[in-house]
Amino acid sequence: MGDDNDSALGESIAGSLYTASLTSSVFNYTYENGRRYHAYHAGNYVLPNDEQEQDRLEYTHHLYRLLVGGASYRAPLLDHRPQRILDIGCGTGIWCIDVADEFPESSVIGVDLSPIQPSWVPPNCRFYVDDIEREWTYSPAEHFDYIHARDLIGFIGPWKQLLSHIFDNLKPGGFFEIQDCTTPPESIDSGLDLVPDLVQWQLKMFEGMAMLGKESPGDAYGIQSYMTEVGFVDTHVEIHKVPIGPWAQGNKHKELGLILQEHVSDSVEPYTMAVYTRALGFSAEDAQATVERVKNNIQKTEAHLYLSYYFLWGQKPF
């Protein structure tokens, strides 16, 4: 994975050079259960990439920013003014675009398996089709001041290998930040007893992702431990517990709860279908029935469910 022409998107997509053979192959999408999936290294990522999923990803971006007062990052970037920024698994590119606008003097690069980013982007922003689980080929001159990842837990395997790639491709003093949430949902009381389908679904998802070779290293502190092992220092964890549904006290919590309840409900189907049908052997009909039961559980505000969203960052030593 590096800044080479073989990896770059077409000029009509993101202003980069490209090869015609790669361009045609990355658009040769696969279709399953009425959803569209990436073509490049097909099957390596289980979420779709169609417009419905792109809308969900943009909603996710705004949810993360809402948690931290509109910020796109928590690492101390304003103190360091990064020159080169990389977003791995950039999705629609919305995070890259926001950060490129905030740091116009920086070069912002997004990589993803899917070429779903917009054509019109800031001049300092570029997108590449690449697989972050393959060997990284950036030269030392191309190393980064800041690398960002979001919502990759459970979709990568093994995590320590990826973190080693990240560490090796940061400049001394550079930062890595991951933004994610801990699953399964928790309850402030015994509410999990009220949502057995949700609990069982999460266990089956862990099982299915493991069968596909992906690792779920637990909560933020599991990833933090891995980061320390590969060499990161001065790591920080910031956790935001967000209710699922309008059951918590206070207008802000109720508003966030409604937003997250809708978001989680919308996420069940794209998360489920490929894992249940590819790995666990479910028929599409049975998988869809599971989706409906889980979505019904998510509406049970009396279960007092919440998710722990976290922002975790650390620094490569000088």
From TrEMBL:
It comes from the Eukaryota. InterPro entries: SAM-dependent_MTases_sf. CDD domains: AdoMet_MTases. GO terms for molecular function: methyltransferase activity. This is Methyltransferase domain-containing protein. It comes from Exophiala bonariae.
